[in-house]
Amino acid sequence: MSIVQRVAAALALLVSLAAFAAPDAERFRKAAADAEAAARKGPADVELAGQAVLRLPAGHLFVPQPQAGTLLNAMGNPGHDPRLQGLIFPEGEDGWFMTVRFESSGYVKDDDARDWNADDLLKSYREGTEASNEERVKLGAPALQIIGWAEKPAYDGATHRLVWAMATRAKDSPADAPQGVNYNTYALGRDGYFSLNLVTGLQQLPQHKASAHTLLAALDYQDGKRYTDFNPKTDHVAEYGLAALVVGVAAKKLGFLALLVAFFAKFTKLIVLGLALLGAGVVKLLGRRRAQPVAATDAPATEAPRS
User: The whole model's pTM is what?
Assistant: First the structure.
């Protein structure tokens, strides 16, 4: 199965949140072909940002930079993100993919994880999302409404890993409108942190989140780069704590998946019109999705955070 088909298999689970201009289908086809050519197949050790190694399991593909960034651009995510390390796809039609980023923030103190309150974090997240909706609309993405936790923030102080998930939908949409989900996982290090964010539909999250945990556990920091290697006398400390990875940083960086889903909605229309760029297999897949409308399948809201 090609990268084009894997992207389609993931995005076939999703529904558009708003109407956008038709995408450049040829640009997407070329970006996907370049990503396919550059992809590394697991099992493989993938070095990341001079900080860590991803022990890519069998049955997975890793698309490196610059091909990963070009593919995200073609999928509707504008701009250049220097933090992006690559994209992970499963082999087969599993219906998800994952972004991998490194934020060189410095050492993030995790003291606040001991007594944070999930309800307070949710309130802050909603306020931050509302404040950033104006910017999101300017980017061509719909304003968002935060529904609540799909999984409350959980931090493991032994492994220095953070996981949380947020359910969202387009603002002012009906109460029964499809909801999106962000499944965000983090691995803290001495100089910053990696984020591995799962892209899928809300209804599909239970079956796919095990893959997110597997890949998070497959990331190993190099000697001297681990969280426990921190030297308070010499090392830079981040200006924010762990809670900011959930609310402060996250709320400012919503919008990616709203654009991406709108892209796929338009791209699907092109396929229906006869531009079978994704191949017969994907057309059959889309047909199966239409024949089995599981609550219209859930739409993601954003890849939040990009941090």
Answer: 0.74
The number of angstroms, rounded, from the C-alpha of 29 to the middle of its chain's C-alpha atoms is 21
**242-301, pLDDT tens digit by residue?**
888 887 554 444 333 333 434 334 333 332 222 222 222 222 322 333 333 333 333 333
Report whether pLDDT(172) > 50.
yes
Could you tell me the sign of the dihedral formed by the alpha carbons of 250, 251, 257, 260, in that order? Answer: negative
Chain Cα centroid distance, residue 56: 17
C-alpha to C-alpha distances, 96 to 14, 40, 107, 222, 240, nearest whole angstrom: 10, 17, 30, 28, 31
Please provide the CATH number assigned to the domain covering 3-291: 3.40.1000.10
Q: What is the largest CA-CA distance in the chain?
A: 63
Counting beta carbons within 10 angstroms of the beta carbon of residue 233, is it exposed (0 to 12), middle (13 to 18) or buried (19 or more)? exposed
Per the DSSP assignment, residues forming a β-bridge with 182 are: 166
Place of tokens 């799909």: 150
**What are the Cα distances from residue 216, in Å, to 49, 100, 123, 183, 186?**
16, 10, 27, 12, 7
Whole-number Cα distances in Å, 27 to 105, 214, 267, 272, 294: 33, 32, 12, 18, 31
Q: Six-digit token pair at 136? A: 């999101």
